[in-house]
Fold each of these.
Amino acid sequence: MDSVLKKNFSYLFLLQNVNYLVPLLLIPYLTRTLGVENFGKIAFAQAFVTYFTLLTDYGFNFSSTQEVVKSHDNKVELSKIYWSTTVTKLILAFAGLIIFLLLILIVPKLQQLYPVLLIAFIAVFSTILFPIWLFQGLEKMSHITWFNVVPKIFVLGFTFLLVRQQSDYLLAIFLQSAAGFLSGIACTLLILHRKTVKFYLPSRSDIRVSLKEGWHFFVSGLATNFYTTTNTVVLGLLTSNATVGIFSASEKIIRAVINLFGTIHQVTFPRINKYYHESKEKALAFGSKVLQFMALGTLVTGILIFVFAPWIVKILFGLPQYAETIIILKISSILPLFALCNGVMAYLIMITFGLKRYLTRVVGLGGIFNLLVIVPAILLYQAEGVAVVAILSEVVITIYLLYIFRKHAIRLKWEWPVSKI
């Protein structure tokens, strides 16, 4: 791993760690202070708002990153990419807000939770102000890391200081949402202060191009949502807030692991694109190393989670309130292995090798499978059923990805022992 890649990995690793470790540090306090019911309300609200975050992000975290990689030395083109992406995200956010408010008006379950849902929606606007795609493409992650880290640490302190009883659950989610929004404001001010880009007023044509470039990534993200966030939302609609709280306790741990390791393919995405323009063989060798490292790391982590699940749940959430979380966490311990290896194969290798057209089919297959079985699984097995369905959906995707690789003669190169990336 060269010095630039190592530096960017370190900063993004720190960034993702804070994004997910701060909530994990808060969990032991919040689960005990707010209770299972209110913890479930927050989990449901955050899961539901994820749909609108996904709409606003569209597919720009990949499509705009690719464009930035191509134009990082051209300030005029870079400015065009930045403002076209930002304005498009703003339009999508307001369109999402209208849909969001209409759903609250017509769905009884959402009407009951409207205060927590409205506060959670702040996260949607935070994604506009925090263009991680720009700095990933420029391979300058240090510029935004501290603006993200410091507010999260303040959230930790203010939560312990201000959230004192079960009725404080609205304050708890507000503090979490506000941190992301403040990070975004600070990041935008940094871009303007350093004159990273010039002002550019995007045309309708620029916005159409942005939407077109991100379409495949958006659809794939939407389909992925069918077997991730949708599971929590459906569980909340068919069962109780307490059941959502039990499931979400396990989900937060598993998603923290996925996002922690996901740092690797976020950092290596710009680099494999550069290697591809030099040599397909070099890019494939690099992608294979990333995949092998990911598989080994997540396998070991999954085994540790399975073995120590009772202690993890006891320390983070408390017993006996969250006793049912133990079996869900054990079932889900293998999920990071499939989810992250699928991410490397689909987003890192398949897209780089010009097979973006398959992305929608791949995640669409997993999403359709999930939608077909999730309701019966919840009705029969509740939260445990959700955990099993999530794993089976990833296995279906793995099988289809390997079929695509074989069809297009993409032969992964395995080495043992694993060499450095």
Amino acid sequence: MSTPKLSGFKSPYPKMVAVNIKDLEKKFNDGERVTPKTLLEKGLVGKMKVEVKILGSGEMKKKLTIAGCAVSASAKEKIEKVGGKIIQ
């Protein structure tokens, strides 16, 4: 008997989950704090074991505080333009 081939390659390192600004605009109120835990509670992220990255797709009108998430350059620009904060 021969050993069956394994299909594909699975990386041991999990990928980041991407969340767009337009999704934050829909789910969060003005002045709220966005963390991986609040994203999980609002249903934007499936698991807490992976990291979250905020991407700049969409328009931002609400002033939010982002904490504990990676942020793309375009998202950072849009968040800070409306008076939001990014806390690392």
Amino acid sequence: MTSMPACESLCVADTDSSTESQTSLASASDPTRSFAQDLIRAFAQLPRCISPKYFYDAQGSQLFDRICELPEYYPTRIERGILREYACDIAALMEPNAELIEFGAGSLQKAGRLLKAMRRPARFVPIDISGDHLRASVSSLTEFLVEPGTARESRPGHLQIVPITADYTRGLVQALEGLPAIGPRYGYFAGSTIGNFTPDEALDFLRQAAELLRGGALILGTDLIKDPAVLHAAYNDAQGVTAAFNRNLLARANRELGADFVLDDYAHSAFYNAPENRIEMHLMALRRQTIRICGRRFQLREGESLHTENSYKFTIESARALAARAGFTPGPVWTDPARLFAVHWLQSPRKFVSNGRGNTHSSIHLA
């Protein structure tokens, strides 16, 4: 089944045409409208940049799952290893009958290890921007939790799973609106996704998390500063999966917004910016071209780029300092022997207070 490009319902004038769409931007879905607005804004300014959250439609999420299994891409493999070794130590710091909230849930494999180690977890709330991928991941999680070796209190009948499709970058309180806490809240922010934020955005996110998780804690993954050659390989894999993931943003614009990007006209560029301690990903135009997005035309010269992602790298000390500024009390840190990646326990000192209201979200009960 094919669908009409969303921009056929967007009212954006073509600056090189005498015609204008007669339909309304408001008729598009919220995610599509946001994507259209942000992409147009990105191409209307210099330097051109857009949030990496738009990588994660269904196709982009599947590509990222493939990236996580690549030999060059160490963060997922290393973080999984840390959790295999230390999940019980982490869970020992958590109170029984708690809820675990994962921001940017992805495949849920790492959260599943924490849930297996927790004592009588009451609820798991995975939040992700890609609803289709989230639903598939929840289905896989339910199978994982009934495998041999799962603690009895984490098995079906004891755990409520409430998947939420939302853009948590627009506000954690908004993402969880109508879902009051039922016990101590613990957050999980995996994969060094914190590195995709600017420093100011990261501080703002952590402040929101400290408020949301009052009386609980945040379990935070951070990618550590290391040899740039290791970083370069991780973001420029031999199979070209990361390049396809990067270009998928343009493919998504073609699918959803009726844009006319020619994907082969853009090169994947990823490099380590040492003074800023970050990997940058760009899509660089290989020739001069005119592109069309939602009725707007934009000119790109050869060599100009769209900045699609930052991935900031941390020292253990810099991550702890950032968390402390946000109101957390930094606690234990777990890392691998080579110190490529770190998992932090960040305690939120404010007491948990129940408001006594019921849950208004639909949920999946494991039975």
Amino acid sequence: MGLASIASHKLGGILSVESIFKASIKIGQHRAKYRAKHQVPEALRILQEEEEGAAARKEGGIYL
């Protein structure tokens, strides 16, 4: 009962909170679909270097 009264409340006398909420859900679903479709492939992601390997190279005087 409480959420229904909030949803039916009009902002500025024009827009209901329910219509804003539904539009927000649609925008979120559209963005999620777009991001899933245009995701960077795993092969192109930047690989992080291990700290242990970097320290071993510096001790031996070899810098790559």
